[in-house]
Design brief:
Layout: E1 2-6, E2 9-13, H1 19-25, E3 33-37, E4 40-42, E5 57-62
Parallel strand pairs: 1-5
Antiparallel strand pairs: 1-2, 3-4, 3-5
Length: 67
């Protein structure tokens, strides 16, 4: 297990987990979101291949409507 930070919350996940698996584990909706790992935006096409490392800081940004 490794420790990562998702939107500033500390969580434990399996080693060798990718972004897509992390989103599934955290029950995050895949529509209307963007992901940054250590302040680097990760394109949606790379979510299956981008591995998460210990102490990574993952930011899940959700699109909202406003006015």
């Amino acid at each position: 297990m490794i420790t990562v930070f998702v939107n500033d919350s500390k969580i434990e996940v399996e080693k060798h987990i990718n972004i897509q698996q992390l989103l599934h584990k955290t029950k995050t909706s895949l529509s209307g979101i963007a992901i940054a790992v250590n302040n680097e935006i990760i394109p949606k096409n790379d979510w299956n291949s981008k591995q998460i490392d210990s102490n990574d800081n993952i930011l899940i940004i959700k699109a909202t409507q406003g006015g």
